[in-house]
Amino acid sequence: MAQPATADNAKPDFSSVTKPDGATAVLMLADGTLFWGRGLGAATVRVGEVCFNTSLTGYQEIMTDPSYAGQIITFTFPHIGNVGANSMDVETTTPAALGLVLRADMTEPSNYRAERHFDDWLKSFDLPGISGVDTRRLTRLIRDGGAPTGCLVHAPDGVFDLDALWEKTRAWPGLEGMDLAIQVSCRQTYQWREGTWEFARNGINGEDSFEVEPEIKRHVVAMDFGAKRNILRNLASLGCKVTVVPADAKAEEILAFEPDGIFLANGPGDPAATGEYAVAEISKLVDSGKPVFGICLGHQMLALSLGAKTEKMHQGHRGANHPVKDLTTGKVEITSQNHGFVISEGSLPDGVEITHRSLFDGTIEGIRLKGRPVFSVQHHPEASPGPKDSHYLFQRFVDLIDKES
User: Fold this and answer.
1) pTM of the model
2) How confident is the model at residue 203 (pLDDT cuts 50, 70, 90)?
C-alpha cells in the first residue's frame, strides 16, 4: 500500500495517512511514497538507496556482497529464506547491505546446509527487513524513476513518526560522490589461500568443504575495494597465492611484494570518489607492465586510471540473468551483476578497446588495453550467486600471467 507522492517534492502531509492494521514496518521513499508491511529481522531504522535484485537464489551471498554498501535490497524473487542461513555462504564477515524488502513472508529453512533461520541471521547483524510489499510496483518505480533514497523502519510496536522519518530520508546525501570502498576494505594486508567450494569432496558420504591450500604457481596482489570471498577463491583455485591489500595501498607497497599479477576487486560507491586516492596508484601499476585484471568497481577504477570517465546509472544492473556479449569471441554469456555506475560511452581514450557489452542496454561490460596485459569486466565472473559462464575470465588472467612470466 503506497501513499501518493507529492509532485513538487514538497514535504508530504502525513496527517491523513492511516496505517494499515498489523503493519510493523514501513519503507518510505524520498518523495513521500509509503510501502507498509510486516517487519522482520532487527527492529531498527536504515536509510540508503533502494535497488532491486532479480536473482532466483543466493540471498545470503547478496546481502553480504560489499558492493551493496549503502543500499536497501528489494528481492523480486518471493521465496527468500527457504535455504536458511549458514556460516559459509557469506562474501564478507560483516554484511554491508542495509536491509531488505520482500513480497512474501520469509520462508522456513528447508536445506541440509541450513544452520539457522534467515530471520535470526538478520537480527544477529542488526539488519531490518519488511515483507508484504508490492515488489512489482516498487520495481517499476525504480525502473521508471531511478534508484531512490529510502528509509526502512521495523517497529514491532507499530508506532511511526512519519514526519521525522521523511526528514531523515531527505537528509541522506546519496551514493553519487560517496567513497564507500574505504569503509568495506580490509585494514591490514593478509593472505588468502582457500579455494572454491566442493560438494562432498570425499565421496557421497563425505563432507562438503572448500578446497584448501591449492598448489601455488603464481602470486597475485588484490586491491580490496570490497572483495567478495568467492573471487579470491577462484584465484586461489587456479594456483594463485593471493595477497590482499587495503584500497588505499600505494603502488610501491604492492610492487614490493613482487607479484606476478595484480587484481582490482569489486566494491561499492562512486568510483570517482574512490579514485581520488586510488587512480594514481593504479596508473603506476599499469605502467609497471604487470598483468592487471579488474572486476566491477575495479573495472571502473581501471578505466579512470586510463583516462576514461564514469557516471551514475539510472537504475543499475543487479541480478544473475544479464546477457553479455564477449566481442573478442562473439559468444554470449549469462552473467551475475551488481553495479550502479558505468564507464561513460565515448570517454575511452585511444588504445583502450571495448571487449564486452551488455545485451540489455548496450553499456560497456569489459575493456582491455591494446598491446598490454591489462583488462577488466563490469560483471561478476565468480557468480555466487549466478551462472558460471564467465569463469573463463579467471583463466584468461592466469594465462596472461604465465605468458608474461
Assistant:
1) 0.95
2) very low
Q: What is the pLDDT of residue 1?
A: 42
Q: What is the pLDDT of residues 150-171, one digit of tens each?
A: 999 999 999 999 999 999 999 9
Which residues, in sequence order, are bridge partners of residue 318?
338
Active site residue 296: yes
Residue 86 vs residues 67, 107, 109, 110, 234: alpha-carbon distances, Å: 20, 15, 11, 12, 21
Instruction: Identify whether 186 is a catalytic site residue.
Output: no
Written as one string, the DSSP assignment of 306-350 is TT--EEEEEEEEEEEEEEEEETTT--EEEEEEEEEEEEPTT-PPT
Pairing state between β 364-369 and 194-198? unpaired
pLDDT over 50 at 332, yes or no: yes
CA 327 to centroid of chain Cα atoms: 24
At 80-118, the pLDDT tens digits run: 999 999 999 999 999 999 999 999 999 899 998 899 999
Calpha distance 154→129 (Å, rounded): 7
Look at residue 405 in the predicted model and tell me its pLDDT.
83
CB 195 within 8 A of CB 212: yes
Contact 32, 5 (CB under 8 A): yes
Cα torsion 321, 66, 254, 299: sign: positive
| Residue keyed to cell 602470486 | 219
| Nearest by Cα to 89 from 111, 61, 112 | 61
CA distance 51 to 48: 9
Please count the CA atoms within 13 angstroms of the CA of 189 that sit on its side-chain side. 14
Catalytic residue status for 380: yes
**Residue 209 above 90 pLDDT?**
no
Identify the active-site residue in 49, 91, 194, 382: 382
Q: What is the tally of helices (H) and strands (E) in the chain?
A: 10, 19
Name the residue type at position 317: H
Asked whether the bond before 373 is cis by omega within 30 degrees of 0, the reply is no
Q: Which entry of 51, 61, 296, 379 is annotated as an active-site residue? A: 296
